[in-house]
Amino acid sequence: MKKFIYVAVIGFLLISCGGGDDPVPTPKNEAPTVPTLVAPANNKLCVDNLVSFQWNVSTDSNNDPITYQIQVAKDNQFLQIVKTLEGPANSQNILLEKGVAYYWRVKATDNKSLSSDYSSVYNFYTQGEAVVNHLPFSPELVQPVLNAVLNTATATLKWNASDVDVNDILVFDVYFGTDNPPISKVSENLATNTLDVPVVPSKEYYWKVVVKDDKGGETIGQTWKFKTN
Question: What InterPro entries does its record include (predicted)?
Fold first, then answer.
């Protein structure tokens, strides 16, 4: 009997001490860092329509292999994408049309399909045949940010605009109201890139900007919106 008790106690101790170590937790997968664009530089005029794109490499805290996706479009919202390419290199050569304004961006993805955000958007213009004037680039939203909610009786609309013809003088037509798209022109040939407009509570407002240069070229911007409380 004593022998049986002794064996039972030893067995219990072995069972109590025989558990394996806790498994080593798998490190959380983190997305690669957002690429930063290098070339072509923002607002550049490219004399060759075989365009060389380059961006700085991303880093991955898990040391995962990275691939890059570049998108080139004819609008800054990437609704008219003309080229999408993927690969491990941080550069691409792409043949594009002449005499066209383009917009481009890049994102990084690891081998577990986790992606960074897209980079900032750069624009450039490809030189056309005997081009006299280039159209302005699409305006860029500054404020109010898209879908903002304002608590104010006056909204300050602000945007940025540029033209590869750096000596061109730019003016702006601003459309604003509760219609989508906005149809009421509240300012014409505005020389500054900001405009104060009155608003009322509990409304959704839409606005857009038409950029015009002094040679007759014009570019219609996208529609932006915000709300009031």
Answer: FN3_dom, FN3_sf, Ig-like_fold
